[in-house]
Amino acid sequence: MKQSLLILFSIILSASTTFAQNTVKGIVKGANGTTIPGATVTVRGTKIATITDTNGAFSIDARQQPPFYIRVSYVGYKPQDFQILQLQESPIELTLVEDTQLDEIVVTSRRRSEVLQDVPIPITVIGGQAAENAGAFNVNRLKELVPSVQLYASNARNTTLNIRGLGSTFGLTNDGIDPGVGFYVDGVYHARPAATSTDFLDIEQIEVIRGPQGTLFGKNTTAGAFNITTTKPTQTPTAKVEMSVGNYNFIQAKTSVSGGVAKNLAAKISISGTQRDGTIWNTREERKYSGQNNLGFKGQLYFTPSDKLKVLLSGDVSIQHPAGYPLVIAGVTQTERSAYRQYARIVSDLGYQQPRIDPFSREINTNTPWRHNQSIGGISLNVDYKIGGGTLTSTTAWRFWNWDPTNDRDFSELAALTKSQGNSRHDQYSQEIRYAGNITEKLSGVVGVFLLGQNLQGLGQTEEVGKDQWRFVQTANTGAQALYSTPGLLDGFGIRTNSTIKSLSAAVFGQVDWEVLKNLHVLPGLRFTYDKKDVDYDRNTYGGLQTTDAALLALKAAVYANQQFTTNVDNNNLSGNITVSYRPTPKLNAYATFSTAYKPVGVNVGGLPTTSNGQADLSVAVVKPEYVEHYELGLKTKPIKGAILNVTAFNTDIKDYQTNVQSPQLGVNRGYLANAEKVNVKGLEIDGTYQLERFLTLNAALAYLDGKYVTFTNAPLPLEETGHTEIINGVATQVAFKDASGGRLPGISKWNVSGGVEFSTPGNLATKPGRYFIAGDASYRSTYSSNPTPSSVLNVQGYSLLNARLGFKSDKFSIFVWSRNIANKNYYEQLQAAAGNSGLYAGVLGDPRTYGATFRYSF
């Protein structure tokens, strides 16, 4: 018995000795030497964790023999791993680096990791946490943080994403045009602008890159690019949950779970859901519109068999079934048409009262339900393999987009243009292979090839008129036109379109960075692009009065007519850039850039205007490519400790600028593409940040933009000039176009300003140490034109927005209250003429004041 007790005592003593030998003691400090209480210390790969005491000290039992890693994290600092090679009696000192070191922000805009201030490109970086804190659950919110960004959307499909006023046509979207702003998520190019409407999931960083970048990215980026990276799966089990609630019954939930599933294989699953009541009330239907109803999912597998090879497989899908996004009636203006064709006279003759012009009552009275359902997603495989001083990357992706809308395009209770359904189905396949890194001590760069195939189908796209349309299309109550009032002639009369665009884009691109002399870098780049588009367009009429009367059939055909055409077009382009950068000290980077860029040929698939004999005008079926010449001077500085100040001046000339033309003909109510001969945009950008320890962070940015048509001799008439007549050969002749040379480009505010401030101080919430904070940001945009041709009525007045948040954040959780548009400012994001140009115009309203609270927890 004594021998057994002696053996048991020996085992216990041995276990106690082992326990003592596995204990790690330490002190966590900041870079300035101050201790950090409340920091989380975790044995990596386990759930063993502890928190530092008020003196920053900790003691943790690792329950394993060295070597092993411990991870130390605390709010405001970068999580860091420390390897424990041996145990010791004296405490070890562990130093954390602040996460808010503004001059150490790392970007991948040149396809490799570099410090932001060393890159001779104007870039704005927004961290994922900062984007979420600002309420930026999609790109639309970011335009308030980056003055050079313009994003206007009446719905997900009709989205204009521009940088410095350039990129895409302003207003109604035509699927036959390529965007000029690249949108990349984890290296995958997203071809359709609807991608900007999806909720952010696990964003690590957003880089907004300004200016042409065709020698660095796979797809043409004539105006710039959004380069978005997401957080990758981790072997260490982690999870994060977030819940937000607010007015208009807003609720948003996000969660992600990550961890190792096998040796060298980690997985992550992320889910988000957003719900919000509408902010616009339909008095006829007695329901709310302009709400949110989104569900998003993302899954990733991350395989890292060695330090050289990394493989990321990602899949995502976002489903959105919102209460649609209607436009409100914003006003009625007099046109130059006869009194018989003015909007007030038309609705009076139909027995209606002229609509009440009170857009900010947020009430509509439409009789066709608004619907903007979409699903968007895809799968991608990214392989990184280190070779020599660089990385060989292959990115393979397939993405899809399904669009199922319904719009009431007369914006009123009238049964005029009752239905517009631009159903679309899009598939894209892309492959990019590139090598980026250091070639020699003085030479680095990137070279790659890119292939993008797209199949964009318009499936049964419908436009339909109702019983009141006869009065809008009747130009005079005389002669044969009086027959337009024939009962049932146009009731339910419409067109159904099936169209297909099959496109192929291929490119070879490269850019090098050569340090020719100490601190003097020359960066030449070159790109060759081939583009091809095959179009099949088939539009057929249906409905209305079934008759064999030739006069009635002619009247119907003047409203809608069959159109069929096919076209094939291809072109290629050689473009490039050269930058000279001088970096005499770590605090100064001066650079100058000249670049040429190109946006591919466009095709019209929204209906073509007709010639005098009623046939489709095939001369405008194809739109010429854009050609860009761009000059830029930039200065990146660190004037004092904790401060960054950057200045950029630029001048951009575009030949054959692709623009959207709104035709007075009903059959092309979505507008069609055309070319303006020459456009110029020039401007000045200033942005700065200042950080005082961890207590105060300031940021501000200003953009002055001057964009105009240098030459646009065949511009469409603005709404108020519809019906304009001129004396031609001694005869008063009605014209449909004018010379808009010298007029300002749509969507560009001359002055764009944004800024933000955050104060924080250490403190405890219950027993949890962290920091209390109060923060706010403001933005201002001056007046801008909202029409392809400058108009006296379709101008959006300048407006300012103010947002704020207040709360507490720690390493593991944060809780704060927030409000956007605190002053409840009434403003438009866009104005547009109603189809037919009778004098009515409608607007897209900005959101009213919203407020709520957010809670986040990670473990």
From TrEMBL:
TonB-dependent receptor plug domain: residues covered: 116-225
Cellular compartment(s): Cell outer membrane
Primary location group: membrane
Transmembrane segments: none
UniProt keyword terms in alphabetical order: Cell outer membrane, Ion transport, Iron, Iron transport, Membrane, Receptor, Signal, TonB box, Transmembrane, Transmembrane beta strand, Transport
Any one GO BP annotation for this protein: iron ion transport
SUPFAM superfamilies assigned to the protein according to its UniProt record, in alphabetical order: Carboxypeptidase regulatory domain-like, Porins
Xref: Gene3D superfamilies: Carboxypeptidase-like, regulatory domain, TonB-dependent receptor, beta-barrel domain
Domain TonB-dependent receptor-like beta-barrel: 363-821
Signal peptide from the UniProt entry: 1-20
Membrane topology note: Multi-pass membrane protein
Keyword Heme: no
One Pfam family recorded for the sequence: CarbopepD_reg_2
GO CC terms: cell outer membrane
Family recorded in the similarity comment: Belongs to the TonB-dependent receptor family.
Record protein name field: TonB-dependent receptor
